[in-house]
Design brief:
The protein has helices at residues 33-38, 51-54, and strands spanning 13-19, 24-26, 29-31, 39-47, 63-67, 72-75, 82-87, 91-94. It is mainly beta. The strands form 2 sheets. Strands 6-7-1-4-5-8 form a 6-stranded antiparallel β-sheet. Strand 2 and strand 3 (29-31) form a beta hairpin.
Length: 98
């Protein structure tokens, strides 16, 4: 019997799944032009246990904005859906309800 595996983030990394390519807004500011191509919206799948990433208070399911310049792509959990490992310092914001 084959065991199911789960991919998780370690240290100061976050595992995310990219969300759509529509207009991107951060805190009510529309990000345009070359900035837009660098900023991506993603859903948090797993948060590492590193000291620096813990200060971001991220939880699974939250939506964040991150710099797309440096990330590592992985097919997580045996699916065809691509996920990305990103470092804590490439995260610029998250969506919050008011």
């Amino acid at each position: 019997m084959e065991k199911e595996t789960k991919t998780v983030a370690l240290g100061d990394h976050v595992l995310v799944r990219k969300i759509g390519e529509s207009d991107r807004m951060v805190d009510g500011i529309i990000v345009t032009g070359s900035q837009q191509s660098l900023l991506s919206k993603a859903e948090v799948l797993s948060v590492g246990d590193g000291e620096k990433v813990e200060k971001l208070h991220l939880q699974k399911g939250e939506v964040i904005y991150y710099n797309e310049i440096e990330n590592n792509c992985v097919a997580a959990d045996g699916t065809q859906n691509l996920s990305y490992f990103i470092r804590y310092d490439f995260i610029y914001g998250k969506e919050v309800s008011e």
